[in-house]
Amino acid sequence: MQFIKEEFTSTLEIKKSKFIAHLCPYDQFDTMMKRLKEKHPKARHFVYAYRYLNEFDQIVENSSDDGEPKGTSGKPSLKALSGADLINCGIVIVRYFGGIRLGTGGLVRAYSDAVNEVCEVAQTFLYEKLETKKLVVEYTNLSKVEYTINQLNIKIKEKLFDSDVTLILEATKERLDELEIRL
Fold first, then answer.
1. Residue 162 is inside which H or E element, if any?
2. Are 83 and 1 contacting, i.e. CB atoms less than 8 angstroms apart?
3. pLDDT confidence bin for 133, thresholds 50/70/90
4. Once rounded to an integer, what is the mean pLDDT over residues 136-164?
5. If DSSP codes are grouped into helix, strand and coil, which group holds residue 18?
6. In whole angstroms, what is the distance from residue 49 CA to residue 29 CA?
7. 177 by DSSP, 3-state: which?
8. Ramachandran region of residue 137, left (φ > 0), alpha (ψ -120 to 50) or beta?
9. Domain that holds residue 172
């Protein structure tokens, strides 16, 4: 699975209708939707789709046709997001009607193409489930432990200094398990 870290935009014009696709991380989705509705008050439709992982590692998906004929815009957009193997993201396609009806098949193709186009320009990253671990280290071993942590590409989120040093680490389960083996 892939994810994005910032917003990407792409514009597609078909038979005088303009499809402006905006792809963003899921946590920015509501803000982006509000901003786009303010920015494009004359747009006819704001079709959206999103996919994210919940706390149980289940994929939650939703979409809306926003007034387009049922099943012609939201579902195809969601399928295109799924086909691009994107997670934790949302997409809003702003449509300006150009006066020519596209028909059911034309709408499905147009919305799918708009999503595919923005997915092609988006910079994606491999999704890895991260876990947090607390590690207590003696001062005398700190530099050795930090060296091993850096070798394994584990992020130190926090360092707490007391009688010992407490490190709050973040990495994949595999990297954290490897750290335990090496220590």
1. none
2. no
3. very high
4. 93
5. strand
6. 10
7. helix
8. beta
9. 131-182
55, 138: one domain: no
- C-alpha 68/C-alpha 64 separation (Å) is 9
Amino acid at 78: L
- What CATH number has the domain bearing residue 109? 3.30.230.30
Is 118 found in the same domain as 137? no
- Which amino acid would we find at residue 70? K
Q: What is the CATH number of the domain that holds 140?
A: 3.30.70.120
Q: Which residues contact 16 (CB under 8 A, 6 or more apart)?
A: 98, 99, 100
Residue 6 has pLDDT above 90, yes or no: yes
Distance, in Å, from the CA atom of 83 to the CA atom of 109, rounded to the nearest integer, reads: 14
Beta strands in 40-172 (DSSP E): 45-53, 59-64, 89-96, 125-126, 131-137, 155-161, 165-171
pLDDT above 90 for 22: yes
Q: How many whole angstroms separate alpha carbon 39 and alpha carbon 36?
A: 5
Structure tokens at 151: 């070798």
